Amino acid sequence: MTVPAIILNNGVAMPALGFGVFQTPPAETRTAVAEALRVGYRHIDTAAAYGNERGVGEALAASGLARSDVFIETKIWINDYGYDETLHSFDKSAGKLGVEQIDLLILHQALPSAFERTLAAYRALETLLADGRVRAIGVSNFMPHHLEKFLPEIDIVPAVNQIEVHPYFQQRELQTLNEKHGILTQAWAPIGGITFYRPGFSRSTLEDPVILDIARIHGKSAAQVMIRWGVQEGRSVIPKSVRPERIAENFNVFDFELSADQLAAIDALDADQRGGPDPDLITLENFSRDIPEA
Ligand code: NDP
Hints:
This protein has 294 residues and is an alpha/beta fold. Helix content is 39%, strand content 14%. The protein is globular and about 55 Å long. 48% of the residues are buried.
């Protein structure tokens, strides 16, 4: 099965369905990513802050796949923002991943409390792009007011904005703004992971009766319906699992189609309920994390 590609705003092709590794323990990452590559995923999303880039690189090296067949995405953590710091952070990530070139490198957070440092970090991404060290650059967790302040200051429009999107938190205004600027919305927690691994949510998207009804009609699982919903609406989706049966299940979403009514029924589940931290509250003081050398 070949996953359909999304063409980014600079012409680079990226598989519409990728594989996430947030909270995948470093010791399990190599096995999980190896399984994902075996099943057919060709896009892996990691981050310097996840501490597991090395496992991703080991799985890639052991896979026997050509480097150009796998799309590798990673993120710069806030401690490494700043021009020189971000250039060096690329070296750290590329070293751990064991690659010369990273396909998509993004800023993990908007860090509004240090705007100049964030801008300098992005300028480093622009340099890495110009130098061919990365094939595309982008951002993550940028809300409308962050983008509106940021975009006039930069030269290269981000290829993606990776944000929390699942049926209970759809960020439609932000998705529309991304689209207006030619920025692809990439959905993190696309099956609502955050709704069931974070205490305090009243219910999990996996148990939602509307989603379960649609799943029953298609003979699919709730997770498969949510992934399909994201792909059909044109988002990049990057579900995570460490379990082989779920890694395969989440990939098996290209043999059915949701109707317009079914898409609309899932759209109507939006509860505007953010599961992740408010991006405005991420500061160097409360989210500091040193990123080790390669
Ligand atoms: P997901 O929506 O992908 O959900 C992951 C959770 O769902 C895990 O607990 C997993 O458990 C479980 N799960 C996976 N498949 C199934 C299934 N078929 N049925 C039931 N449960 C399932 O959430 P994530 O937060 O992991 O988001 C996906 C990716 O997005 C991350 O891995 C990361 O790459 C990225 N991300 C980025 C963020 C950012 O700030 N930019 C923030 C958060 C995530 P198990 O592993 O045990 O199967």
